Amino acid sequence: MALNFKAVGNRLGALRRLPSAAFCLQAAACAVVAWSLWHGGLSSAPALDKAPPATKPDARAGTPVSAAPAPGQAAPISLAATPLAGAQIAGAQLALSRIDVIVTRNDTLDRIFRRLKLSLADLASIRFLPGARTNLDSLRPGESLHLMHKDGQLFGLERRLNESQTLKVSRDVGGLKADVVQNALDSRRRTVRGRIDSSLFEAVQAAGAHDQTAVALADIFGWDIDFVLDVRPGDAFVVTYEEIWRDGAYVKDGPIEAAAFVNQGHEYRAVRYTDPEGGSHFYTPEGKSLHKAFLRAPVEFTRVSSRFNSARRHPILNLIRAHKGIDYAAPIGTPVKAAGDGRVRFAGNKGGYGNVVEIEHSASIVTVYGHLSRFAHGTHAGARVTQGTVIAYVGMTGLATGPHLHYEYRVNGEFKNPQTVALPGAAPIDARWSADFLTRSAPLLATLDAPQGPVLVSR
Ligand SMILES: [Zn+2]
After folding, report:
1. What is the mean pLDDT of each run of 10 residues along the chain (459 residues)?
2. Closest alpha carbon to 323 in 391, 401, 379
3. Ligand 1 centroid vs 310 CA: distance in angstroms?
């Protein structure tokens, strides 16, 4: 099947490169290019002999056109492959023509069908197909539609709905049917490097990558580097990532595969590994997790309104009293996340804490979240939580002068400074997979040291 599709694709590709003089048909308002794709019967088309058995039974059964490829598998050329099968079926009788229409202002499908003298009955049946109507309602000026017909009878219609999906109408035994298929994407591996002058975002853009990659870099190394406070001019990075392309056009930056970041002279390296169970995580070249078992701050805060302090004057009680946690100022309602995996041991109201959640983690660590406005659904004593789960929302219940999260980190009952305590690392690479990890990560890590230049990979 693949061979066959490819042959047609190449042929079609060649046709697409015809001089633009082939345009300018009909009214100036409408650019239509039409050509007859394939004439002649089974015997006169040697390529057809290569057609796999899968399409031949259809042909013998007299099916007008073989079924469209399964959703998700269709490549942009698949519609072009359809007429080949069609030609095969009815011999010289069935030669399909493909028409590419550029939609103009105020164009409707009805106008296009009339202009091209396509069957209005077919148009009516398309409109009854589930999924087709809404996806054909409003055409955008400038977009292109691909139509396949034989003497005005519609055999195929293709419309790209968005970056990732295409509507495909095709004709099979039961008549016309519509499918929404995923557009085929290509990924190209790319390595870029840069040096920071002012911000990570600017440096990443100057290197030729995009914001997604800057965000991903900050996510990967954010456990070791505070990208707000620690980054200095002169810090440098190298990043190997996948660029996602479709039909020869850039779509977006895909996942990072390997990266290095030099912060104040110290180099951090990360490589992405997808284990045999499908989990993807970043590890150091030695296979240690880049993640910590705890979030440094369990809330998106605007500022630290009170630091960990063994002797401070309490703003409400007006007493010298230790502040055994840290206060993160944030608007009321800001989500508060579980700092690590664990089990809720208390969720309720408790004196000066107001509404408070306490979570027990492994290694005798307990985290505490106070002054909450309300609890998230499912936050109750005994509930299991994973790192990053929203457990509650910022408030100012209990003894609080303004909306903030009071956060404590206790080890064996002892209060630690959440800003500076050494956080335990998350689990390293599973021992079962360490050999596989080393084998697969070596070439990715090597890209960080290779001379700069894009490397194309096909998937
Ligand atoms: Zn506090």
Report:
1. 33 33 31 31 31 34 34 34 37 72 90 93 89 83 91 92 87 88 88 92 94 91 83 94 88 94 94 89 92 88 80 64 87 95 96 96 92 96 94 94 94 91 88 94 93 48
2. 401
3. 12
Asked: is 303-416 a CATH 3.40.1190.10 domain? The reply is no
How far is residue 234's CA from residue 100's CA, in Å, rounded to a whole number? 52
User: According to CATH, where is 3.10.450.350 located in the chain?
Assistant: 2-182, 186-291
Task: Measure 347 CA to ligand 1 centroid, in angstroms.
Answer: 17
Residue 423 and residue 293 in contact, taking contact as beta carbons nearer than 8 Å: yes
Residue range(s) of every CATH 2.70.70.10 domain in the chain? 303-416
pTM of the full structure: 0.52
Half-sphere exposure of residue 454, counting CA atoms within 13 Å on the CB side? 11
CA of 227 to the centre of ligand 1 (A): 25
Instruction: Kindly give the distance from the C-alpha atom of residue 357 to the centroid of ligand 1, in angstroms, as a whole number.
Output: 14
Under 8 Å between Cβ of 264 and 225: no
Residue 369 CA, ligand 1 centroid: distance in Å: 9
| CATH topology classification for 186-291 | Nuclear Transport Factor 2; Chain: A, (3.10.450)
CA of 317 to the centre of ligand 1 (A): 13
The architecture in CATH of the region 2-182 reads Roll (3.10)
Beta-carbon count within 10 A of 3 CB: 11
CA of 323 to the centre of ligand 1 (A): 6
Residue 36 vs residues 40, 95, 298: alpha-carbon distances, Å: 11, 7, 63
